[in-house]
Design a protein that fits this description.
The chain is mainly alpha-helical.
Length: 106
Amino acid sequence: MANIDKKSLEHLASLARIELDPNDEDGLVTDLQNILNHFEELQAINTNEVLPMTGGTSLKNIFRADAVESTEGSGELKERIKKSFPESAGSLLVIPPVFDLTEPDK
């Protein structure tokens, strides 16, 4: 498996767009190398006789199935909700964007 050095760490940090404190770099190199060594140990385990998992549990859903309920006759409720919302466009409620799609500064 590949060794982690300061150059690799700096490359990974630039890909992840994180700033590293130069005082922490030696510790991070050691930690990442230990993690990679652990994965080498896991890869050495013979799993030929182990069946692949098809799910994490045998538990079943005990809750009711989702069902669509009629919205007829709830016009008054819709209007109250729409009036209480800060901004709307037609029959839609407008919310602020969740993701910033602008390019990061380089």
